[in-house]
Specification:
elongated; mainly alpha; 13 helices; 3 strands
């Protein structure tokens, strides 16, 4: 049964391998270029909160040089969803065409057929997702040293969350396909559902997994160690108690509309403060565990539902 399942899944496996190959074709050469630039510019000596203007300029130049790459790689967050819906297609197509009924007349039971097909889809999805994690984690090493792993672009592609994303997409496609029994529409609807769920978690739910910390500090002393590589949810001018800041009109205040850096410089000259709402870098694995459990748990539940519905509806 496993051998037959692999043969029936050949096209989808080739598509998945091609997706991985496309990602690798972009990440490997650009990753080598970034690693070389990081070493050549001596950026390993510029890690810390207070490293001087020369290091600040070098880090800014590095990030500006490779910002076009990070922007493109951000779209790779869709790839785990593609893995899931593509590898769910063989199961859904069998239900659509009714060929599963022929398999059920052979020497295996209905339950054995469902179990083998779903196990094969789960295994293939997890292997592809793990390969993607390995590629992206290696590629992003210089940026992790400089900026940490808490911003959305890094958090969404490292650790274990990619496994959860892929399982969720797989489970959603299997569940929709098992009920609808239309392969292409089920894949399209499931991918849209995956995309919507990711946006919802990224922009609203993640910051509520663990209550963020708050910190008020003098704007003239630089960022405190607690904000080192942290995910800063919000940051803005305040008074010493963390309330709204009140500044006199005129002076530098009138010219501090060009960005937060100019505003902080103005506040520093006036003895102002900054209030930050943030998730510290030490919570990376805690947040990863919660989000992985959320997506993987829903995904496994949907996969189990797809198997149950298949057996129940025949």
């Amino acid at each position: 049964m496993i051998w037959l399942g692999w043969r029936q899944q050949r096209t989808e496996t080739v598509i998945t391998a091609a997706l991985l190959g496309f990602v690798a074709a972009f990440l490997v050469p650009t990753g080598i270029e970034m690693a070389h630039a990081y070493a050549h510019d001596g950026l390993a000596n510029c890690l810390g909160l207070n490293t001087g203007p020369a290091c600040g300029d070098a880090v800014s130049a590095f990030e500006l040089r490779f910002s076009k790459f990070t922007g493109l790689v951000g779209w790779f967050n869709l790839v785990p969803g593609l893995f899931g819906v593509v590898l769910a297609a063989p199961y859904v197509l069998e239900l659509e065409h009714g060929t599963h009924r022929l398999a059920w007349t052979q020497s295996i039971t209905r339950f054995q057929w469902v179990r083998a097909k779903l196990a094969l889809a789960i295994t293939s999805t997890l292997v592809a997702a793990a390969a993607l994690i390995a590629l992206y984690t290696w590629w992003r090493v210089p940026f992790v040293h400089l900026d940490g792993r808490m911003d959305n672009g890094a958090f969404d592609a490292q650790g274990t969350v990619v496994l959860g994303y892929a399982l969720f997409a797989l489970g959603l496609a299997l569940a929709v396909g098992a009920v609808w029994r239309r392969g292409i529409p089920a894949v399209l609807v499931s991918f849209v559902g995956y995309f919507v769920a990711r946006i919802f978690v990224d922009t609203w739910l993640r910051q509520r997994f663990i209550a963020p910390k708050q910190l008020t500090f003098s704007s003239g002393r630089g960022d405190p160690p607690a904000l080192w590589h942290a995910w800063i949810i919000s940051e803005g001018p305040s008074n010493a108690q963390g309330g709204p800041a009140v500044f006199p009109r005129g002076g530098c205040v009138a010219h501090a509309q060009h960005g937060f850096r100019a505003t902080k410089a103005c506040m520093a000259s006036l003895g102002g403060h900054v209030h930050a709402l943030f998730e510290p870098a030490s919570r990376f694995w805690a947040l990863q565990g919660i989000e992985t459990a959320l997506f993987a748990g829903v995904g496994v539940t949907l996969i189990a539902f797809a198997g149950w519905w298949t057996l129940r509806s025949e």
